[in-house]
Amino acid sequence: MSGKGYNSKQMGDAGEMLVAATLTLHGIPSFTMPPNWPGYDVIAELEDKRLEKISVKCRHRGKGYIHIKNKHFDWLAIVLIGELPYQFFIIPRAVAIAKKHASVKVDGTHIIYTKAVPEKFEAYRNNFGLQKFKKS
Questions:
Q1: Does pLDDT of 3 surpass 60?
Q2: Helix (H, G, I), strand (E, B) or coil at 33
Q3: What are the structural domains, with CATH classification, of the chain?
């Protein structure tokens, strides 16, 4: 346990549920995938019935980093917790990769520092309509 009453797996699961529920309440029906589903965590159905795959990362605000390891998702949803209100950033995968901080050359993992998320991805804060092209 983290000292907060939950462990990192529980925090991640809660972040996935938060993203799916919040998208649904904003008119984008969404659901979480089964535990340990490879590549993505949430499926969202757009108005045109297209399905979008979302990888969710839940972190404490300002602490640590996010690894992006695979190519099998369309969106990166970052949920920053630690104080209310929680912050949501739902970013097209290509934008997240383009604005990453570093790549690990051995396996192609991309790294984004959590403390820089609000500044780097402000244009995608509360992007519950899954808009791909926003001012950055």
A1: no
A2: coil
A3: 8-62+72-97+117-124 (3.40.1350.10)
